[in-house]
Structures are given as C-alpha cells and as structure tokens.
Amino acid sequence: MHTSDYWIRHFRENARHQRVNWTLAPTITKDEIAEILPSLQAWQLGETSEGEHLIAASTKYAYALGDPDYVNAVRLFIKEEQKHGNNLGRYIDKIGEQRIKKDWGDSLFRKVRYLNTSMEIWTLAVIVVESTAQIFYQALKDATQCRLLKQICTDILIDEAPHIAFQTERLAIIFENKSAFSKAWRKVVYRWFFYGVSALVWFGHKRLFKAGGLTFERYVHKMRYKYYKTVKAITAPLVVEFA
C-alpha cells in the first residue's frame, strides 16, 4: 500500500518519459484500418474525459479522509489518461481519418459517472475499464504491423499497470472500512459489475479483439484472471508502505 505522495511522485516521473517516436510515418494498411478504426475512434473518445466528476468525488472523499494529496494524485492520473487520448487522436489524424464525438459505450459510461458521487463506485468502474484496456491495447498492438501505432500501444500498456495498482489500493482502503456484512455483499456486487462491464466491452469491440488474435474464450479467461487478482488485492489485509 502506497501513500498519495508516492503516487504523485510516480505520475510526475512517468510523465517525463517519451516513448513514442512521432517522426515515424504510419504504415497501417487499409485492411488493418477496416478492422480496428471504429474501436480506435471509440477508445480515443473515451480517453479524453476532463474528469471533472471524478475530481469532485475524490475531493469530497479525500478531505473527509484527511488526505488532500489524494486529489493531486487523481489529477495526475487523469492527465496521464488524457495523454493516451491525445496520442490516439494524433494517430487518427495522421492516417487521415476522423475523430468521433459520440459513441454508445462512452455515452453510457459518462452517464453512470455523472449520476455517481461515490468514490467506491468510481474506483471500481475505473479498475474494470483499466483491466479491459490492458487487453484492448495488447490486441490493438497485435492487430497491426505499424510501428508508430505499436509504440503508442506500448506506452499506454506501460502506464496501465500502475493505474490499476493505484485504483486497487484505494478500493482496498474503502473496502477495509466496511462491516463484515457489507464486505460480503460487496464481493457479489463487484463480481457482477466486473463481468457485466467486461461483456459490454467484448461485444462493443469484438472485431478488434478478433483482429488481435483473441477469441471470446481467451478474452473471458484473461478477464477472469484479472478479476481474481483484483479481488484478492482488495480483500487482503492492508500494509501501508511509507515511500
């Protein structure tokens, strides 16, 4: 378990790394574009959120907890997500395609966020989305031979693992403060929410996943692994590391 100050230092240090060589020309083929473009456009839109509602929820939560630094950590987390959206958008521009302004999956997720003020639900939602993102970007990377797009995906994948750790640690703190009864029913809710969102992501982007070599069975296997890994981390006894 890390402090908010640790995560602030992590995000600031990570922002110094430039892993994408924008002097490379995109070499994606027309066939590859046909397979991945709709999902690429949709995911790019989803990565561009300003995060106002998340900041509001985290501010309320952090000051109640007495940890105002957590808000700064969340702001840096959002900034890193926006970098992903900017890079994907820049790539879409370079291949002469259009960015989109609306997508059903993004619209649904935004409505859930707008109606929600609970830090617990926010954090759980981000964990699920980040978990699916790891599989999505690996599939996107495997679906093309374009070096530039592969570098963009690699950069995002490097960022995503700490993102999940950041959110999982927070949900573990929230979970730990619940009663035994609350913990019991939350495990059920977490499971249904995790697999429900995972299913929506598959059906929304199955063409991209298949282009990256994933079957539905393999996708489910990967998400099941991520689910158990996350739940174990959330329900484990907390050990605070002052780093």
Automatic annotation (TrEMBL):
<dbReference type="GO" id="GO:0016491">
    <property type="term" value="F:oxidoreductase activity"/>
</dbReference>
<dbReference type="InterPro" id="IPR012348">
    <property type="entry name" value="RNR-like"/>
</dbReference>
<keyword id="KW-0812">Transmembrane</keyword>
<protein>
    <submittedName>
        <fullName>Ferritin-like domain-containing protein</fullName>
    </submittedName>
</protein>
<dbReference type="InterPro" id="IPR009078">
    <property type="entry name" value="Ferritin-like_SF"/>
</dbReference>
<keyword id="KW-0472">Membrane</keyword>
<keyword id="KW-1133">Transmembrane helix</keyword>
<feature type="transmembrane region" description="Helical">
    <location>
        <begin position="188"/>
        <end position="205"/>
    </location>
</feature>
